[in-house]
Amino acid sequence: MDISIVIPLYNEAESLPELHEWIKRVMDESGFSYEIIFVDDGSTDESWNIIEALNGKAPEVKGIRFRRNYGKSPALQCGFQRAQGDVVVTMDADLQDSPDEIPELYRMIREDGYDLVSGWKKKRYDNKLTKNLPSKLFNATARKFSGVNLHDFNCGLKSYNKEVIKNIEVYNDMHRYIPYLARIAGFYKIGEKVVQHQARKYGKTKFGISRFFNGYLDLITLWFTSKFGKKPMHIFGLWGSVMFFIGFVALVVVLAAKLMSIIDGDLRPLVTNSPYFYISLAAMIIGTQLFLAGFIGELISRNAPNRNRYKIEKEI
Length: 316
Hints:
Layout: E1 3-9, H1 16-30, E2 34-40, H2 47-57, E3 61-65, H3 72-82, E4 87-90, H4 102-110, E5 116-120, H5 128-146, E6 158-161, H6 162-165, H7 178-184, E7 190-194, H8 210-228, H9 233-263, H10 275-302
Parallel strand pairs: 1-2, 1-4, 2-3, 5-7
Antiparallel strand pairs: 4-6, 5-6
Helix pairs in contact: 5-8, 9-10
């Protein structure tokens, strides 16, 4: 099979028939063998009934329905697990992504040799204040942290070599960082294509402003786990040791100052009267806690069942 098109959706009943016809026209004109996998993320409207109706008259249409709303990342992960095409294309169901982009996205994977190609909605029709400006700030931060030079991490229109989606796990809200996940998994040839952005035709957006705040937290989590997930002592042990050393040196200075005052005959000042005593004590306690956190993390990491599972590209 040439292409698997994975489409996560939530309450998009109005757009599904039109989207299917659009995809079918593009696929037939290009002569691709394909499948369309609709993943219904617990819709409360008629979305699933429409998917069943489409499946009844179009064998290329397949569907997965969640019992409740889990989110876009689980929907993509389930779609990826079922996909059979050599190239996998993801797109949103709200008609804001154009299926006319699919042939070129396919060509960039198969002929240009990209592992992943991400769409870039250079000209958008969203609200500039609530979406465009926060999106630019978010993408700039994601580029800095991940090292992946993309303008639009969150664009739903992407194409993947099949090997990519079979070697990554999309969980929580990590769909925003699939290019970063691919890079962590060892797929470095990541490209970008300017794509057409359509104004929303039906319904309303399912994502609020909170996604940008959650996105930053997810980015920090992903960066941290990718860098220190299998070697927690390298960060907790290091900073724990630094904190303990600083606290210990400060405590020695405080005690030395007290000893000098005793030698000079001044018996009145108490060590506990100095704020530096408590600062040094707190630094030593925090340093010990950090070191122990790293030690416990190492124990957990050493006993993890996947500690020696590595991605092998080729073997002869």
